[in-house]
Amino acid sequence: xxxxCTAANAEVKKIINEVGAKKLxxxxxxxxxxxxxxxxxxxxxxxxxxxxxxxxxxILMLARHFGGAYVEEHERANKLQATxxxxxxxxxxxxxxxxxxxxxxxxKEREIASLKSSLGMLITAFKLMATxxxxxxxxxxxxxHPAAIRQLLGAMADNMDEAKSRIEDMMRExxxxxxxxxxxxxxxxxSH
Length: 192
Description:
Keywords: Plasmid. By secondary structure, this protein is mainly alpha-helical. The chain has 2 domains: 3-88, no CATH class; 123-192. Helix content is 77%, strand content 0%. The protein is built from 7 helices and no strands. The protein has helices spanning 3-19, 21-32, 39-52, 56-88, 102-132, 145-177, 184-191. Helix 1 packs across helix 4 (56-88) and helix 2 (21-32) packs across helix 3. It is extended. The two termini are 56 Å apart.
């Protein structure tokens, strides 16, 4: 980007932060006639936009900014929807049943799909929690994964016990150093 375009882009971002994206979109909505704006409100919106964006390049930068934000949000929504679809679809196709219990089987299959989806979300949340606390989540493949998860949970519990012990020690130390019952003048200062 050239220096002039970079400066214009910086000014547009500054205007968006000062005025607010929602208000700018509302003004543009009034100008284009998508809202229920009175003609005088539309004229005022045009004047405000022309005051804010004195060069056509700045209006193009504003459109680029909002377009880029829209594209990013649209891609994010598509990825989330694809993940949700992947988690909620069954892994294998159900075999057609010849008996009259198709309704019961279909409800059980829906229940299983729901449980798989919930399990997937729980595993994702557990992985996030484990990595946030500095632990590596074991791979959930094979028969050894219950032991690996148990080991991870034990390490996390030990870590929590250590933190709890440190907090209890600090509380005892504070209570020992600052006995507020023996120092009423400090109690009054705290209440202010």
